[in-house]
Amino acid sequence: MTEQPNDRQTPPGPQAAESVTAASPSAAKADQSPLGLCAGTGRMLAAGLLVGLVAWLLLDQAFPFYDAATTSVTAAGEAAGQEDSDQMMREAHLLKRKNSSVAGAILAALAGLFFSVVEARQRPGRRGTLAAIVVAVLLAAVFGALAGFAAQEFHRAWLLDTRLEPMQRTMATQGIFWMLVAAGVGLGLGLFTGRFGLLVGTVLQAVMSMAAFAPAYVMLAGFLFPIDDADRLVPASSGNLALWCLAAMGLLGLFLGLARRRRRTSSTPPAAAV
């Protein structure tokens, strides 16, 4: 009779066990790496309120950043004529657009800076954090400047549309401005999430917050500050400006905090195959 071969496998040697043990920490570390935002609702809300406070103090003192020279306005007013009037209107529009773009860039850059710093401090890995913060601030500033530009251009076009009510025009102008600001902030902050799908979700979360803010703000400001000019993108009175900055940034921080999401890890190791 021929001897049957032994089909039983020999147990792994000590070198194989050491390799498995050495590979396990890196695998566990990869499993525990966070996906999505890590800061949480409370920290993001506090950061948003702080951004709103800083923006309010800055805009209340410095806005408008550029003002028309009184001498040129007086001279143009003395020379009565349709061409002079049209020229004054064009110059006033360009001035509003310039001021709105700068205000939007400052608001968005402040939000991108504060939110990204809070998020970076809560993440376990600090490699590349400074570069991510700089990119987040730059993206937010670009979108903020675009927001001020687009809001003034659409507002000028909607002034000629008699189908829109004044409140609808104001809501649309505020909505365009704040949703573009939120898109820039969400895009910069979404770079921390680690995946394209989570980045898109962060942007959508931020934009939805401002889509809810714009109509609510216009109705509340119309009730609390009825004498303010509703056609102004940046409110004139200090109280209205405080509401505009604090409520918008606080709500944006709240929605960004709700976008928190981590990778779920199993607390027990998988069972060994028999």
Can you describe what's shown?
The chain has 274 residues and is mostly helical. It has one domain. The protein has eight helices and no strands. The chain has helices spanning 14-31, 41-62, 70-78, 82-122, 129-158, 166-190, 196-224, 238-258. It is elongated and about 65 Å long. The two termini are 32 Å apart. The relative contact order is 0.15.
Q: Summed up, what is this model?
A:
This protein has helices at 14-31, 41-62, 70-78, 82-122, 129-158, 166-190, 196-224, 238-258. By secondary structure, the chain is an all-alpha fold.
Q: How are the elements arranged and paired?
A:
Elements: H1 14-31, H2 41-62, H3 70-78, H4 82-122, H5 129-158, H6 166-190, H7 196-224, H8 238-258
Helix pairs in contact: 2-4, 2-8, 4-5, 4-6, 5-6, 6-7, 7-8
Could you tell me the mean pLDDT?
A: 80
Helix content: over 70%
Q: What is the string of SSEs from the N terminus onward?
A: HHHHHHHH
Distance between the termini: 32 Å
How many helices does DSSP assign? 8
Radius of gyration: 27 Å
For the sheet with most strands, the description reads: none
Number of strands: 0
Number of domains: 1
**What's the overall geometry?**
elongated
Computed structural class: mainly alpha
Strand content: under 5%
Which residue ranges are poorly predicted, with pLDDT under 50 across at least 5 consecutive positions? 13-33, 70-80, 262-274
Subunit arrangement of the protein: single chain
Task: From the structure above, extract its key features.
274 residues; mainly alpha
